[in-house]
Amino acid sequence: MARKPTPRSEYVLFNVTYEDDTQRSNRRVPADLLGGIDGDAPARAVIEEQDREISAKSGLPPLAIKRIVRVEDEEKERMRDSRRTNERRASSR
């Protein structure tokens, strides 16, 4: 007998850089909170809340967030930088 599919909760992954230049990768934010007029702005509030919960459990103060970037955007940026580097190398020959 076939199983019923379970409802999937879609998430968007973010890489977070903190003021002390440490990074946490693949922080999950529910996709239904993002988009619209605010874009990715609600992601900061969700991640800050996650940090407060982690801080309460660990006993360490939460770190201040410096930058939040979608994982896809960071990968695109890395690929673009790599392509530009390769183009510069090819043109300098």
Topology:
Layout: E1 11-18, E2 23-30, H1 41-58, E3 65-70, H2 71-91
Antiparallel strand pairs: 1-2, 1-3
Describe the fold and architecture:
42% of the residues lie in helices and 24% in strands. The protein is α+β, with helices and mostly antiparallel strands and 93 residues long. It has one domain. The protein has a 3-stranded antiparallel β-sheet. The longest helix has 21 residues, at 71-91. It is extended, with a radius of gyration of 18 Å. The model has no long low-confidence stretch (mean pLDDT 86).
Radius of gyration: 18 Å
Q: What proportion of the residues is helical, as a percent range?
A: 40-55%
* Percent strand: 15-25%
Number of helices: 2
Rough shape?
Answer: extended
How many DSSP-defined strands? 3
Side-by-side strand order of the widest sheet? 2-1-3
Question: N-to-C terminal Cα separation, in Å?
Answer: 64 Å
Q: What string, H for helix and E for strand, traces the elements in order?
A: EEHEH
Give a nutshell description of this structure.
The protein is of the alpha+beta class and 93 residues long. The chain has 2 helices and 3 strands, in the order E-E-H-E-H.
Q: How would you describe this structure in keywords?
A:
93 residues, alpha+beta, three-stranded antiparallel beta sheet, 2 helices, 3 strands, 42% helix, extended
